[in-house]
Design a protein that fits this description.
6-stranded mixed beta sheet; 1 helix; minor pseudopilin epsh fold
């Protein structure tokens, strides 16, 4: 019980406030992490799509076949445009990094047939994409790279490169792929 001269909060009031804030945090943190992981997946898929498009553009510009290769730079997975054709990344070559916690996978996601393509090839992490001097890939099927977060419950993204060199980013639902 307070008198008129007392100020501040009681220990009980402080404990009630701490319990309320803790409850809100317990509800908000998992959803915030799920959203953050989704943003990281979207970022990785967009970066991959952009580096494939850049490889295509550079092949047309140079009027010579060019490849997009995967490597590890300072411990981080990355895709780069091999401008000089030596198969090794140089600091002057365009690069797209895969964020920490995101990885390329070859299983665990919905069937690629739900994307609507007549034929797809799941691209392994070591698969290079080469575009000829007209910007056309050197393969005749759709190459699909699949990405997930460390926690697969956070979803999957796919980057598809079609036989004309165009890229498309897909998001997985539990049973199929959708184009956002």
């Amino acid at each position: 019980m307070r008198t008129e001269n007392q100020r501040g909060v009681s220990l009980v009031e402080l404990l009630i406030t701490v319990v309320g804030v803790s409850t809100l945090a317990a509800v908000a943190v998992p959803q915030t992490l799920h959203t953050l992981h989704g943003v990281q997946l979207n970022s990785a898929a967009t970066s991959m799509s952009n580096i494939f498009a850049r490889t295509r553009y550079e092949a047309i510009k140079a009027n010579t076949p060019l490849s997009c290769l995967q490597t590890t730079i300072n411990g981080q997975p990355a895709f780069y445009v091999d401008l000089n054709g030596d198969g090794a990344w140089q600091s002057t070559e365009p690069v797209a990094y895969i964020p920490a916690g995101v990885s390329l996978v070859t299983s665990g996601y919905p069937l690629d047939s739900t994307m609507g393509y007549s034929s797809t090839t799941t691209a392994a992490s070591t698969t290079a994409i080469t575009f000829d001097q007209r910007g056309v890939p050197t393969f005749s099927t759709v190459y699909v790279y699949h990405l997930t977060h460390v926690n697969p419950k956070d979803g999957y993204r796919a980057v598809a490169v079609n036989a004309m060199g165009k890229t498309k980013i897909w998001r997985a639902t539990p049973s199929s792929w959708i184009f956002p």
